[in-house]
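Re: [ENG-882] Designed sequences occasionally contain unexpected residues at chain ends

Forwarding the minimal case from QA. Structure tokens:
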């Protein structure tokens, strides 16, 4: 059942024309959802507003400030831990190179040349593999399958992006 514009009329509490009142009355006779909305509004308007206990705002602000301090500490400790783990991993990975550099100049020169040749030959072989695949793979699938594949990859990328966004969002307020 369509509850619009009746929900808007009930929630905004705007003055209604006689035609709108008639439409609302006929809708309320058949719709339990909107009738419950009217009853809830009446019940809320008839309740007495109670003032908060003495010192509520002070206690709330104190608790909020304490939570912010705790969050800052957690973030700071997280950054420190992340940095230490990163430095440890970099040190562990670079230990063989550093020991070779310290040991003898001839060893580190050959090590650098060896790594350089390895990188150059790896890039060349990956380029050759990429060129072969570029010539062979398009003929393996029809254009419709490519379209479906591209849409699937884009969908998974969107899903991944939204998931990361939702997981990293911090709630605001209390």
């Amino acid at each position: 059942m369509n509850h619009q514009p009746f929900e808007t009329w009930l929630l905004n509490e705007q003055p209604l024309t006689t035609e709108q009142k008639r439409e609302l009355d006929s809708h309320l006779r058949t719709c339990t959802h909107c009738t419950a909305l009217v009853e809830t509004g009446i019940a809320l308007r008839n309740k007495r507003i109670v003032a908060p206990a003495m010192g509520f705002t002070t206690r709330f602000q104190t608790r909020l400030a304490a939570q912010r301090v705790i969050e800052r500490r957690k973030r700071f400790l997280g950054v420190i831990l992340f940095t230490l783990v990163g430095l440890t991993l970099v040190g562990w990975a670079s230990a063989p190179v550093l020991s070779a550099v310290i040991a003898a100049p001839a060893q580190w020169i050959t090590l650098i040349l060896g790594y350089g040749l390895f990188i150059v030959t790896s890039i060349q072989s990956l380029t050759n593999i990429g060129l072969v695949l570029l010539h062979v793979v398009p003929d393996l699938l029809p254009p419709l399958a490519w379209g479906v594949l591209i849409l699937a990859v884009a969908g998974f990328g969107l899903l991944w992006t939204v998931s990361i966004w939702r997981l990293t969002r911090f709630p605001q307020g209390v």
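QA comment: On inspection the terminal residues look reasonable. The chain is about 85% helix and 0% strand. Proposing we downgrade this to a documentation issue.
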